[in-house]
C-alpha cells in the first residue's frame, strides 16, 4: 500500500488539506454566529404593589352653655383613624338655650375617593318628672332629639372662623340623623342634594410644607341648638348619636354603591325556627297564614298575636298556585298587624327582643315564600343571605323549613316591617289538616 495514498483515493496531503478545510469551516460557523445583528431587552424583578386608601377625620366640637356645663368627652377635638370610635360629646344637664357644633374634615391617603356619611340616633325618656308629666303623655318616648334644631352643612376654615357653605339637611336633630341613617353621599365640590352616583369624588391634592401629601375636599359641620321656647317636655330625656364616615376609591367606581346601607344576615334550615334558632326555643308572638278549611267562615286562615289562644284571626280563601303578597308590621309600641292579600288582623304583643323568622310547613303540598324584604325603623335593610324559603311534601310526613333574620334587640326595639310573597299549592291527596299547610312569622 502506498503510504501517500489511501483506499478512497485521497493523498495524505489532500486529507490534511481537507481536514484543514473542515476546521476552517467550523471556525467560520462560530464567527458567523457572533457577527449577526442582535439586541436584548430584559424584564426582571417585576412587582405589583397595592396603593393605599386610609381615611383620617379631623374633628372639633364646641358647646355653649354660658359656662354652666362642661363637655366631659375625653377629647372634643382630634383625629379619628380606626378603632376605638371617637367621642366628641358627653354632656349632662343641657337646657333650652344651649348650642354647639361639630366640624369634620377629611384627609385621604392616597387615592381619590367618594366620601359617605351615615348616622344613627337613639333617645330615652328616663322616666317622667312631676313638671314633665304635665306636658308629656308619652312615658316611653324621649323628646330631646325632636326638640333640638339642627343643620348639617358643607363648611371650611378661614383662620379661626368657620365659613358655612351649602346646606345638606336641616330640621330637628332627629330629622338630620334620619337623612343620614341610610347613608348620604358627600360631594367633592360641596354641592348638596345629589343622588348617589352623581356626586363628585374628593380629589383635591394637598402638599403641606411638612408631612406627606394627602387628598381632601369639603368639610362638613353639624350645628345644633335647643330653642328657648322648648319647655319641660325634655326634662331628664337623653339621646345618643353615632356618626360614621366612609371613603371608597373612585377609580373603577361610579359612586352609587352605598357603604352605609344596613344589612341583616339571613340563613335557612330544617325544622321550626323557634326551636332551632331562638335562645329560649320559644316565640313571644307570631303571625300565621294557613290553608285552614280554605273557606269564608269557620276555621281561620290568618292570625296574629302573642299565641294561638289570644290571636286576632280572620278567614281567607286561597287559590292554590296563585302568588299573593303579605306583610307583617310592628309599630314599636307593642302593636303588630299581619296582612295577607288584603286581609288584615292586628293585636298587641310583647316587646320583641331578638331574631325574626319565617317557617314554612307543607303536608301533601308546597308552600313557598319569596321576595322577602326587611325594613327597620323606616330604613330598608339589605338581606345578606337568602330571601326565600319553601317546604314541599308528597308523602306521609310534613316538611318544615325556616329562614331566620339574625336581628338583635336593638334592631327590633323600634318599628319594623317584613314583606314578601307566598304561594300555596295543595295536591289532590291533601288530607285537609288545618295546620298541615301554613307559613309562620315568629318573633323572638
UniProtKB/TrEMBL annotation:
It comes from the Archaea. Signal peptide: none annotated. Residues 251-277 are annotated as: Disordered. This is SipW-cognate class signal peptide.
Amino acid at each position: 500500500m502506498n503510504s501517500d495514498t489511501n483506499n478512497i483515493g485521497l493523498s495524505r496531503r489532500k486529507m490534511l488539506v481537507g481536514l484543514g478545510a473542515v476546521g476552517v469551516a467550523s471556525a467560520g460557523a462560530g464567527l458567523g454566529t457572533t457577527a449577526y445583528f442582535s439586541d436584548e431587552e430584559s424584564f426582571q424583578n417585576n412587582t405589583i404593589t397595592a396603593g393605599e386608601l386610609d381615611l383620617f377625620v379631623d374633628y372639633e366640637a364646641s358647646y355653649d352653655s354660658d359656662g354652666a356645663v362642661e363637655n366631659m368627652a375625653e377629647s372634643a377635638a382630634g383625629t379619628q383613624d380606626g378603632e376605638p370610635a371617637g367621642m366628641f360629646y358627653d354632656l349632662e344637664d343641657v337646657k333650652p338655650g344651649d348650642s354647639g357644633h361639630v366640624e369634620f374634615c377629611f384627609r385621604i391617603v392616597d387615592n381619590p375617593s367618594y366620601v359617605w356619611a351615615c348616622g344613627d340616633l337613639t333617645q330615652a325618656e328616663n322616666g317622667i318628672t312631676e313638671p314633665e308629666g304635665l306636658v308629656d303623655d308619652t312615658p316611653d318616648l324621649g323628646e330631646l332629639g325632636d326638640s333640638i334644631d339642627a343643620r348639617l352643612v358643607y363648611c371650611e376654615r378661614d383662620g379661626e372662623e368657620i365659613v358655612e357653605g351649602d346646606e345638606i339637611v336641616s330640621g330637628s336633630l332627629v330629622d338630620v340623623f334620619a337623612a343620614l341613617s341610610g347613608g348620604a353621599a358627600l360631594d367633592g365640590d360641596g354641592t348638596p342634594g345629589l343622588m348617589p352616583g352623581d356626586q363628585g369624588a374628593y380629589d383635591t391634592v394637598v402638599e403641606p410644607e411638612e408631612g406627606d401629601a394627602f387628598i381632601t375636599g369639603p368639610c362638613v359641620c353639624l350645628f345644633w341648638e335647643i330653642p328657648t321656647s322648648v319647655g319641660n317636655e325634655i326634662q331628664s330625656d337623653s339621646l345618643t348619636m353615632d356618626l360614621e364616615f366612609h371613603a371608597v376609591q373612585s377609580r373603577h367606581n361610579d359612586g352609587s354603591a352605598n357603604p352605609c346601607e344596613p344589612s341583616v344576615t339571613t340563613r335557612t334550615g330544617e325544622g321550626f325556627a323557634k326551636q332551632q334558632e331562638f335562645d329560649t326555643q320559644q316565640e313571644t308572638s307570631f303571625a300565621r297564614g294557613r290553608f285552614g278549611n280554605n273557606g269564608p267562615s269557620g276555621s281561620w286562615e290568618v292570625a296574629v298575636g302573642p299565641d294561638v289562644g289570644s290571636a286576632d284571626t280572620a278567614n281567607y280563601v286561597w287559590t292554590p298556585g296563585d302568588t299573593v303578597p303579605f306583610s307583617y308590621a310592628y309599630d314599636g309600641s307593642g302593636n303588630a298587624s299581619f296582612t295577607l292579600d288584603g286581609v288584615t288582623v292586628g293585636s298587641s304583643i310583647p316587646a320583641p327582643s331578638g331574631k325574626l323568622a319565617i317557617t314554612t310547613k307543607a303536608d301533601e303540598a308546597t308552600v313557598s315564600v319569596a321576595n322577602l324584604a326587611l325594613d327597620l325603623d323606616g330604613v330598608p335593610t339589605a338581606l345578606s343571605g337568602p330571601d326565600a324559603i319553601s317546604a314541599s311534601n308528597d308523602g306521609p310526613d310534613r316538611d318544615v323549613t325556616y329562614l331566620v333574620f339574625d336581628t338583635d334587640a336593638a334592631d327590633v326595639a323600634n318599628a319594623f316591617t317584613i314583606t314578601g310573597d307566598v304561594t300555596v299549592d295543595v295536591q289532590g291527596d291533601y288530607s285537609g289538616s288545618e295546620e298541615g299547610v301554613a307559613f309562620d312569622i315568629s318573633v323572638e
